[in-house]
Specification:
It contains 6 helices and no strands. It is mainly α.
Length: 159
């Protein structure tokens, strides 16, 4: 068995993590959640578009005589500043999230590997130790069913 990761958290560690997450959630409370249809309908600012947008805002800042109040230039400049402030922090959060997901996968793999080795031990020596019934119960995890049986079971379940 290869142990990919070993972690443990004290109660104090978990409380500190929860407190830090609460601070992050509080500081990012103004973030939005968009529906898929909203996402589809929005004009997207990719890398090339970002350069264009920055240049337009800069030219407009330098030439206020062409700007109407309806344009909302101060709001656009504020959005750009927020984007610049938020992007590196979200990059860090995303990296941390990716590492967290990888760690969850590794922890699960470690547990699964140990469980499979333990199950193999039960198959070999479980009968002599009076564990055959438990081994058989555990073995139901490996039973295969056909798609037809799965579909029939789903249809039989009340809605």
């Amino acid at each position: 068995m290869k142990n990919l990761v070993s972690l443990s958290f004290s109660t104090e560690d978990l409380l500190a993590l929860d407190e830090a997450l609460g601070v992050i959630e509080g500081k990012l409370a103004g973030m939005v959640s968009l529906t898929p249809s909203q996402v589809r309908s929005l004009a997207k600012m990719g890398e090339k578009s970002e350069v264009f947008c920055r240049n337009v805002l800069q030219v407009l800042d330098q030439n206020p005589q062409v700007v109407t109040p309806a344009l909302g230039l101060p709001e656009a400049n504020g959005d750009l500043a927020a984007l610049d402030a938020l992007r590196p922090r979200l990059r860090r959060i995303k990296l941390l999230s990716t590492r967290g997901e990888d760690t969850l996968l590794a922890l699960g793999a470690d547990v699964m590997s140990a469980a499979l080795e333990g199950y193999a031990l039960l198959k070999v020596s479980g009968r002599a130790s009076g564990l055959e019934d438990q081994r058989r119960d555990l073995g139901t995890r490996f039973e295969r069913t056909s798609r037809r049986e799965d579909e029939a079971a789903e249809e039989a379940e009340p809605a």
